[in-house]
Design goal:
CATH topology of the largest domain: TIM Barrel
Bound molecules: cobalamin, iron/sulfur cluster
CATH class of the largest domain: Alpha Beta
Radius of gyration: 22 Å
Largest sheet: 7 strands, mixed
CATH superfamily of the largest domain: Aldolase class I
Number of domains: 2
Cofactor: [4Fe-4S] cluster
Oligomer: single chain
Keywords: Iron, Iron-sulfur, Metal-binding, Methyltransferase, S-adenosyl-L-methionine, Transferase
Distance between the termini: 37 Å
Helix content: 25-40%
Mean pLDDT: 89
GO biological process, one term: methylation
InterPro entries: Aldolase_TIM, BchE-like, Cobalamin-bd, Cobalamin-bd_sf, Elp3/MiaA/NifB-like_rSAM, HpnR_B12_rSAM, Methyltransferase_Class_B, rSAM
GO molecular function: cobalamin binding; iron-sulfur cluster binding; metal ion binding; methyltransferase activity
Structural class: alpha/beta
Number of helices: 18
Low-confidence stretches: 487-507
Number of strands: 17
């Protein structure tokens, strides 16, 4: 069959700092291709809606699948599905991905027939049975399926993540993927899942707190096959198991693979396993994203981060000693007043690191979705991108955005100021000489993308699709939140959610 897979447009944040290849969708594409189908991918982060329209009209896919890792993309995907169904009424349209897995029944209902199914959980194991069922029937038996007839069997989970390898060859605009000055940049997965359980995050609930590692040989071989000189490692927390990081490093050393790397990790992991990070600096580790989340113990406890502020600051020292550039994330609570923003600005200016701010947002799939007692001020999916306030702000909303953007731009000016003084000009010249313009564009776009007027106007747009209401009851057993569990969910209407069950997943 002709299968078209689509990644929706970039969200606000990605308009400037980064734009990365859709690795999950590439793996889903590989699974569909391995099952004997013809596959094309359209990534709307780098292409336009009219490009998608052109492919739909000329190639006439029999199946179209959208990747919905981000809640904020759901309205766009529903509207595109309606347009595809108008053009090709017989085409089977389905959704899959991280966020849509938590709201599958609601989204199906909102699409009013424009979407035939949602596949919950990991996409690779679902592709072969799904595509066979589209052709031969038996859709309701596909693992992870949700249709108008209800929930099918529980999603299946891959035993190992070595295969299928992402179909990177299907991405026609690879030079458009970058992160900061790592331009162009590919992505790579060493491990999948996270054993922690932070209250604001859904990474652990999606995978039922399981954790799987690629074999070091397969990981090194895949890295060696990547053409780009820079690689973003997508793992939620890199090098939780230092022996795994070491084993991959050894394989890369043996193959003499040298690239520049950007990864994400936690302060305690960096402190506990400093040697493995040091070894990776020799292989090209240049940037690290540390989710500090809060500056004080109270905030860290609230997010159940299981780290203390001292560890966070010691981790920054360690990274500096290793010569790694660090980007820190802090979560802005909508309750912050002007004084609190001022303190954060002072902190950000006092450290050499890049500081990112994200706004505390209860998401389906997170624990705070259930426990946050403040009522939602909006249920517009598009505002659930952690750059907008979706619960009441202490400051008037307009003032809140002014403070947020002011803080972000102070930080950005500091960062760009340093870079301009110490080398952005050289990096810029080098990238432009190689035809890479992503980094240059990023330097000039900040004020257009981040501006309080635009943030506020986003709240005034007419709303067509709304998130379901939070259940408003405390989470009893937190395993109820999992997407991947071993217990088969009961079959029910699309509005009823399958219950979770005992975790019992590979640790
Ligand atoms: C890497 C990553 C990124 C990267 C790359 C994004 C990209 N282009 O794909 C970057 C750094 C750019 C990024 C940015 C953001 N991210 Co992000 N990101 C991740 C992360 C850590 C891993 C994703 C990944 O690549 N995993 C590896 C691949 C193999 O898995 P996967 O993509 O999930 O795909 C699997 C399944 O989801 C499914 N699947 C995926 N697509 C499809 C399609 C079909 C048809 C099917 C059947 C199945 C399917 O099958 C795949 C294979 O098993 C996740 C956390 C997590 N563990 O999931 C957060 C996560 C997805 N990000 C999150 C957020 C909030 C963001 C930002 C909005 C943050 C911000 N404002 O600053 C931005 C927005 C980006 C944008 N779209 O414009 C949230 C999503 C929250 C939500 N409910 O919407 C997550 C869950 C993190 C969290 N803490 O909760 N992100
Ligand atoms: S925030 Fe990081 S450490 Fe916490 S659960 Fe999510 S991925 Fe894991």
């Amino acid at each position: 069959m002709r299968v078209l897979l689509v990644h929706p447009s970039a969200l606000m944040y990605s308009e400037i700092f980064l734009r990365l290849e859709p690795l999950g969708l590439e793996r889903v594409a590989a699974a569909a291709r391995d099952a004997g189908h013809q596959v094309q991918v359209v990534d709307l982060q780098v292409l336009r809606h009219r490009d998608l329209r052109r492919v739909v009209r000329s190639w006439r896919p029999e199946v179209v699948g959208f990747s919905l890792n981000y809640l904020a993309n759901i309205p766009e995907a529903i509207d595109l599905s309606r347009a595809i169904k108008r053009e090709l009424p017989g085409c089977f349209v389905f959704f899959g991905g991280h966020s849509v897995s938590f709201v599958a029944g609601d989204v199906l209902r909102q699409a009013e027939g424009a979407v035939d199914a949602v596949v919950r959980g990991e996409g690779e194991p679902a592709m072969e049975p799904l595509l066979q069922a589209v052709r031969d029937g038996g859709l309701q038996e596909v693992p992870g399926i949700v249709t108008a007839a209800g929930y099918g069997p529980a999603p299946r989970m891959l035993h190992g993540i070595d295969s299928p390898r992402p179909a990177r060859d299907l991405m026609r605009h690879r030079r458009r993927y970058f992160i900061g000055e790592l331009d162009p940049c590919a992505s790579m997965e060493f491990t999948r899942g996270c054993p922690w359980d932070c209250s604001f995050c859904s990474a652990w609930t999606f995978y039922g707190r399981s954790y799987r590692k690629a074999s070091p040989e397969a990981a090194a071989e895949e890295l060696a096959s990547i053409a780009e000189p820079n690689v973003f490692i997508v793992d939620d927390v890199a090098f939780i198991r230092p022996e795994h990081g070491d084993a991959i490093a050894a394989e890369l050393e043996r193959r003499r693979v040298r690239k520049q790397y950007y990864l994400e990790t936690r302060a305690d992991v960096l402190l506990r396993h400093t040697e493995v990070f040091e070894r990776w600096t020799r292989l090209g580790l240049r940037y690290m994203f540390l989710g500090m989340e809060a500056l004080d113990a109270e905030g860290l406890d609230l997010f159940r981060k299981r780290v203390n502020p001292d560890d966070n600051f010691r981790a920054l020292e360690t990274a500096r000693k290793l010569g790694i550039n660090v980007a820190i994330n802090l979560i802005v609570d909508p309750a912050w007043d002007a004084e609190r923003f001022k303190l954060v600005r002072e902190f950000a200016l006092s450290v050499p690191e890049i500081v990112h701010l994200t706004v505390m947002t209860p998401y389906p799939g997170t624990e705070i979705w259930h426990t946050e007692s403040r009522r939602l001020t909006t249920r517009d999916y598009r505002l659930f991108d952690i750059q907008h306030a979706v619960v009441p702000t202490t400051l008037p909303l307009e003032r809140f955005y002014e403070e947020l953007v002011r803080t972000q731009s102070v930080i950005n000016r500091k960062h760009l100021g340093l870079r301009t003084a110490f080398g952005a000009a050289r990096i810029l010249t080098d990238r432009l000489a190689h035809g890479q313009t992503n980094f240059a564009r990023m330097l000039w776009k900040f004020n257009r993308v981040y501006n309080p007027g635009r943030q506020l106007a986003d709240h005034r747009r007419p709303v067509r699709y709304e998130l379901p209401l939070p259940p408003g009851v405390p989470v009893g057993d937190r395993r109820e939140l999992y997407i991947h569990t071993r217990q088969a969910p009961r079959s029910s209407g699309p509005s009823a959610r399958p219950s979770g069950g005992p975790a019992g997943l590979p640790e």
